[in-house]
Amino acid sequence: MRVLFFGDVVGEPGLRILAQELPLLRRLYRPHFVVVNGENLDVTIPELGKAGMHPQSLRALFALGVDAVTGGNHSFDPPWAEEVLGHARVVRPLNYSRHAPGKGSLLLRKGNQELLVVNLAGRSALAHAGDPVEALEALLAQWQGIPILVDFHSESVFEKLGLAYLFDGEVAAVLGTHTHVATQDARILPRGTAYVSDVRMVGGEEGFQGYHPDFLVEALRRRLPPKGLALRPAEGPGRVSYVLLELEGGRAKGILHLSEVVDLPPANP
Ligand SMILES: [Fe+2]
Ligand SMILES: [Fe+2]
């Protein structure tokens, strides 16, 4: 079974790039499932620098044939989070408040293929997250014999690598997201878990994690949302970042991690 996983899609440029690249990659790799991290799909409150997803962008993402959308710290940014996190094929960090909207895992089925998609967050990315190790242990107690893909959303390589070794052989893959910076460490751990510390992002290349730097730099200087500035996605050349997994019997046989510069298609008028 092959699974194609894309790192954080940033804003409307990210969606445009994915719309351009996904059909080509589908023909090339013939994935059974496509999973996308969508926590940056929209700038939801530009003057406060908030991300997350709008329902219409989420619909556009699913119209591309994406099977599941994962999240992270920005899953909970917009006041309408309940609406987007309530979608059947959207997951958000599992190790979050049980009172928060949404769910942390999702079983995908296609023909005789099954994949359990799980989203976890480290506290370095999401301050109110619970213990990701305990959350995954509890989940594994309920699921056996199903290939499991974990999107682990964290700032810390130590935490991501540690969790991957801890659950080596129990989950098919631990794929890191959140930093929007690719690491060159994709590999299969000794007991068969595919791993990469961070996949990177899909979005405008000329920016700060896929955004124009002005807002983020000023926010860092002031430690407050900058006055008169709005967070907006970067343009420039495009960047597409993904992992292709080859899975068999709940373990990984292959992992390919690529992050490439591509054309940024023009916006629709
Ligand atoms: Fe992100
Ligand atoms: Fe994040």
Question: What do these coordinates show?
Answer:
- The chain is of the alpha/beta class and 269 residues long.
- Helices cover 24% and strands 27% of the residues.
- The chain has one domain: Metallo-dependent phosphatases (Purple Acid Phosphatase, chain A, domain 2).
- It contains six helices and 13 strands.
- The strands form two sheets. Strands 1, 2, 3, 4, 11, 12 and 13 form a seven-stranded mixed β-sheet that branches. A six-stranded mixed β-sheet has the order 5-6-7-8-10-9, with helices on one face.
- The site of one fe (ii) ion has 6 residues, from loops.
- Residues 8, 39-40, 72, 178, 180 line the site of one fe (ii) ion.
Q: What is the CATH topology assignment?
A: Purple Acid Phosphatase, chain A, domain 2
User: Could you name the ranges where pLDDT drops below 50 across 5 or more consecutive residues?
Assistant: none
The biggest beta sheet reads:
7 strands, mixed
CATH hierarchy: architecture: 4-Layer Sandwich
- Spell out the helices and strands N to C: EEHEHEHEEHEHEEEEHEE
Strand segment count: 13
Beta-strand content bin: 25-35%
Q: Which structural category do the helix and sheet elements fall into?
A: alpha/beta
Ligands bound, unique: fe (ii) ion
CATH class: Alpha Beta
Give the N-to-C terminal Cα separation.
Answer: 39 Å
Average pLDDT rating: 97
Give the proportion of residues in helices.
Answer: 10-25%
Spatial shape:
globular
Domains counted in the coordinates: how many? 1
How many whole angstroms does the radius of gyration measure?
17 Å
In CATH terms, the superfamily is: Metallo-dependent phosphatases
Helical region count?
Answer: 6
